[in-house]
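Methods — Computational structure assignment.
A single polypeptide chain was analysed. Its primary sequence is given first, followed by the predicted tertiary structure written as structure tokens.
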Amino acid sequence: MGTAVQRASDPDPATLLGRGKVHEVRTEAYAAGADLVIFDNDLTPTQLRNLEKFIDLKVIDRTQIILDIFARRARSREGQLQVELAQLNYLLPRLSGHGTLLSRLGGGIGTRGPGEQKLEMDRRRIRRRIRVLTEGIERVRSQRALHRAHRRDQNLHMVALVGYTNAGKSTLFNALTSSGVVTSARMFATLDPTVRCMPLDAHRTALLSDTVGFIRKLPPHLVAAFRATLEELEEARLLLHVTDASDPERDAQDAAVEALLDDLGVASTPRLHVWNKVDLLTPAEQHKFAAEDRSVAVSAQTGEGVENLRQRIAD
């Protein structure tokens, strides 16, 4: 319903924006009839509370909206565990201090006055749930480690798709493996890792893994929670870095992917750059991408260049 931008060298520790800008956002939000203000930044618990008080509307930050999208997309038990853990770790320091007192005043031995605050009860319950979720995810990691050991015993090579969200990884996955994985133009349509056999030639088969899409400033809680899933990348002999060649923001998106691969410790894994959606480019642009070293130009949608990619993977 509206957008406000502020360029500032130092964010305000109390409200992120300057006081004048906060007032401007509040005025514009009410004039537009908005009921929610979203910040494309991470807000500290203090900033979140202050902004909601000053603007007098619900405020959510970048991490919160990404976690909400992940929660809607999670289908498997593993994905739901990982998303819930990330949400609780995000929520814990942001619990508001307005909890009511659960008074234990009354007759009887041991009655000493006001009881435990509801806030403290909520915190303790959340910490308990975090422990349960962490144990559940550790079991998932153990199971995944067993699967990886079994693949090593079978001498099956793993190839993993990585890339920015909505680059077309799942469509390419289907084209290479003849699978029916759900594809969508929505962000983070794939959360749960999928592994399928990928025929390379008459004698060889590899395993292809489709993983969660990356995004700039991916929330650290999410990276930590999805560590069990992202560990699949460590086993890969080859990474296919898929980029939407038609996206004008492709360079910034590639930089975000590179940074995350570095954080995950897999930046040194051999890599093939796959320029996807070249059917949306002019012939001159297609030629430019196809001529780059260690890269392949394809259209997962039309099938153009897919067999060439398969041959490059085999090589």
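Note: The longest helix spans residues 118-153.
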